[in-house]
Amino acid sequence: MVSLLPHEQKMSVMHLLVRRHPSNTEPIKSKEELVFHCGFRRFRASPIFSQHTSADKHKMERFLRPDAPTVVSVYAPITFNPAGVLLFKQKNDGIQDLVATGSLLSCDPQRVTLKRIVLSGHPFKINKRSATVRYMFFNREDIMWFKPVELRTKWGRRGHIKEALGTHGHMKCVFDNQMRSQDTLLMNLYKRVYPRWTYDPYVPSSLTWFKREIIVDMDDLDME
């Protein structure tokens, strides 16, 4: 039997610092349902993954990385440190595989997780320090909306949108140096993401693992 500390009966955004277990090699996607063992609690939820850095904004990860610690964010009852964490993935046959291990990082709904989206365009006409770009936008209104956003290229050029040309998504861009014809124009856009409210306190019991052995009749074997 245990007793709850103040506020431990309330729900909040929990951040768990975990590392991929070497015995599990299959890809684990973000927002995929997992079984959590956090402290004395067991529950199911679909978390989101993000990088573990010292910055105030953290980039979202689409998969659970095997080579670096990852922060797992999920809506769950408040739990205080220290608390061990085990993550399991339940298969269709009822067996739960250990995915990651770690500990409770913090309970902080103000932690910012950002999802990055990259828009790409191609140069249509290149001048000395400017270029006409197409295929990034397809109407004039979008170009004017994203005009303050900085541009970059795969070859390391930096620039910005100067003006829109016509009504079909062509635009004139200015760079710090001449752009090459084989280069690609990129624009990074960021959006804050939140974990889904998928908390489920019911966790079905895991089936006992057993080794499946196939017995072959000796009469069925072809003897040479």
From TrEMBL:
Ribosome biogenesis protein BMS1/TSR1 C-terminal domain location, by residue?
A: 1-193
BP-aspect Gene Ontology terms: endonucleolytic cleavage of tricistronic rRNA transcript (SSU-rRNA, 5.8S rRNA, LSU-rRNA); maturation of SSU-rRNA from tricistronic rRNA transcript (SSU-rRNA, 5.8S rRNA, LSU-rRNA)
Q: Which Pfam families match?
A: RIBIOP_C
* Example of a GO MF term: GTPase activity
One GO cellular component term of this record is: preribosome, small subunit precursor
Which InterPro entries does the UniProt entry name for this protein? Bms1/Tsr1, BMS1_TSR1_C
User: What is this protein's function per UniProt?
Assistant: Required during maturation of the 40S ribosomal subunit in the nucleolus.
PANTHER family in the cross-refs: PRE-RRNA-PROCESSING PROTEIN TSR1 HOMOLOG, RIBOSOME BIOGENESIS PROTEIN
Q: What is this protein called?
A: Pre-rRNA-processing protein TSR1 homolog
Organism the protein comes from: Dissostichus eleginoides (Patagonian toothfish)
Give the classification, highest ranks: Eukaryota, Metazoa, Chordata, Craniata, Vertebrata
